[in-house]
Structure formats: structure tokens, C-alpha cells
Design goal:
- The structure is a single chain.
- This protein is α/β, with parallel strands linked by helices and 298 residues long.
- The chain has a single domain, classed as Luciferase-like domain (TIM Barrel, Alpha-Beta Barrel).
- The protein has eleven helices and twelve strands.
- The strands form two sheets. Strands 1, 2, 3, 4, 5, 8, 9, 10, 11 and 12 form a ten-stranded parallel beta sheet that branches.
- Helix 3 links the parallel strand 4 and strand 5.
- Helix 7 runs parallel beside helix 10.
- The mean pLDDT is 96.
């Protein structure tokens, strides 16, 4: 059974707008709502208009009553995994056991530079993500965690109180086939990748399966999710994604009801266990309600 969710960006919006949006998403029947982790707008323009993720994630937990509440994904480059473990555990208590943890390597150099946070090479950022995932897995599942990495160290670290959900899921975001998908195979309960075509999703799932075989893990243990765009028309799509529209276009559903259903079916056939509609302001909750009706969850 496919899970349907909505991934809500935090740029160019207010908390009042987000609260109203989250309420409508939950009422429409979706089972997942997530936020992103950026300090600046996620569009490479240098626009600083963006709310902070941890506070928004806690607000999301408070404002909803049924959906899983996630973050796709917290950045290992400026979020220490031990602090994140405490953060997500507290959010799990706020939500009464509905929280999901997400971690990624980070990519938006403009916000690192603006805030004086070192932006190392992709290799180092991926190493940090791998170590952070190992630390998070231990802190969320084990009574004590010791870890001696190059970037993070833990010494009999305890995360108390424990999460309400003893199997609080760890998600890893990204599509890198050599490093990211290997980290997914080692540690993740869920894998999320944004704005790729169904054909690309098929190919990356095959690579993930190979990595799972290499670490002795059943790939069926990992929920595979695609973040996709959905707009009623090209004008709405351009308003949301601006100059990024050509880069994300392979992973966007636009057109008639049948065209949308056909592309959605292609993702499901490609192995997507979960489909998240990725949205950013200006909000169009009517489009989300339209999609919910098309897939029969409303």
C-alpha cells in the first residue's frame, strides 16, 4: 500500500500560513508531513527568507494529531547527531510517537558561507553523514552508544528519556549511488530522493539493492520514497520553483487527471513505497486536495 505525504518547504512563508496548510493536509487524508532543513531559501539565489527547521518540526508535531511528522532532511554539516537525537526524541514526545528522523549531507553552500560554517568537499560531507547516521541509529535504538569516528565521537552516550516509538524511523536523503545509497543500506529505515524521473528511481533502487546485498541486508526493510512536484498547470509550477524549474521538471506531475495518474503509477511501478508532494510558497492547498481525491485518500 502506497503512503502519501506532503513535504512543506519553509521559505517565503509564515507560521500562521504553515499551521493552516498543515491542518488542511492532515484533513485531506495524507499520512505524512515533513519540513526541510535550510537557513536560506533552497533555490541558490542567496535569498535569506526561510524559517528554521527544528522549531518548525516541533510546531508541526504540536499542530497535527495523526500524521507522521518528519524532516527531509536535517543536515549533518551543521547538526551534531547527538543533539539531533535529543531533538527528535523530544519531538516524538510532543507528537505522542509520530516523529521521523531524517539526515543528509547538505548541499547549499550559500548558507554555510553566510553563517561561517565550514563547507568541506562532497567526500567529507558524505563521510559526516555516514558517521551521523551510525550515531543516530545507536542513540535512538540502544541504551548506550560509543562511537569513535573522524568527525563525531560518543562515549557511553545515553538518550533519556527514550523515544515513545522504540522503532523511530531513520531516513536518509539523497541519490548518490556510490556513497549515499551505501549509507542507506547500512543504516536507514527509509530512503528519500527528490525530483527524479520514474526511470531514474528504478535505476537507483537497483543500486540500493546491490548495496544491501553487500552489507547483508534485505532491501525490503527500507521504505523508498520519492519527493515529486505536483501543480495544476505550468503557471503554478513556475511560481513555486522559479529558476529551478528545469532542474526539477523530471520529477513533477502536471497535466490532466489521467496524465497525473499515469506518472504516479510509473513511480509506484518503479518501487516507490511512499510519494511525497514537495511544495513551497505560494501555497496551493486546493491542488493538494485535488491530488488526494485523485489517489483516493480524501
Amino acid at each position: 500500500m502506497t503512503i502519501y505525504g506532503v513535504h512543506t518547504g519553509l521559505q517565503h512563508t509564515t507560521m500562521d500560513e504553515l499551521r493552516g496548510l498543515w491542518h488542511r493536509i492532515e484533513a485531506a487524508g495524507y499520512d505524512w508531513i515533513s519540513v526541510w532543513d535550510h537557513f536560506y531559501a533552497a533555490d541558490l539565489t542567496g535569498d535569506p527568507t526561510c524559517l528554521e527547521a527544528v522549531a518548525a518540526h516541533a510546531a508541526l508535531a504540536s499542530e497535527t494529531s495523526r500524521v507522521t511528522v518528519g524532516c527531509l532532511v536535517y543536515c549533518a554539516g551543521y547538526r551534531h547527531p547527538a543533539v539531533l537525537a535529543k531533538t527528535i526524541t523530544t519531538i516524538d514526545h510532543i507528537s505522542n510517537g509520530r516523529a521521523a528522523m531524517g539526515i543528509g549531507a547538505g548541499w547549499s553552500q550559500v548558507e554555510y558561507d553566510a553563517y561561517g560554517i565550514p563547507f568541506p568537499s562532497a567526500r567529507v560531507r558524505l563521510e559526516m553523514m555516514d558517521e551521523a547516521a551510525a550515531c543516530l541509529k545507536g542513540l535512538l535504538r540502544d541504551d548506550k552508544t560509543t562511537f569513535a569516528g573522524e568527525h563525531f565521537q560518543l562515549a557511553d552516550a545515553q538518550n533519556v528519556p527514550r523515544p515513545i516509538n522504540s522503532n523511530l524511523p531513520l531516513w536518509i536523503g539523497g541519490g548518490g549511488e556510490k556513497r549515499t545509497l551505501r549509507t542507506v543500506a547500512k543504516y536507514a529505515d527509509g530512503w528519500n530522493v527528490p525530483f527524479i524521473s520514474p526511470e531514474q528511481f528504478t535505476a537507483k533502487r537497483a543500486v540500493l539493492a546491490q548495496h544491501c546485498e553487500g552489507v547483508g541486508r534485505d532491501p525490503a526493510e527500507i521504505t523508498c520514497a520519492a519527493n515529486v512536484g505536483f501543480s495544476n498547470n505550468e503557471e503554478d509550477f513556475e511560481k513555486q520553483f522559479g529558476h529551478l524549474r528545469m532542474g526539477v521538471r523530471p520529477g513533477v506531475m502536471i497535466g490532466s487527471d489521467q496524465e497525473v495518474v499515469d506518472k504516479l503509477g510509473a513511480y509506484i511501478s518503479a518501487g516507490a513505497d511512499q510519494i511525497n508532494i514537495a511544495v513551497r510558497a505560494p501555497w496551493n492547498p486546493e491542488a493538494l486536495e485535488r491530488f488526494a481525491s485523485l489517489v483516493g485518500i480524501s
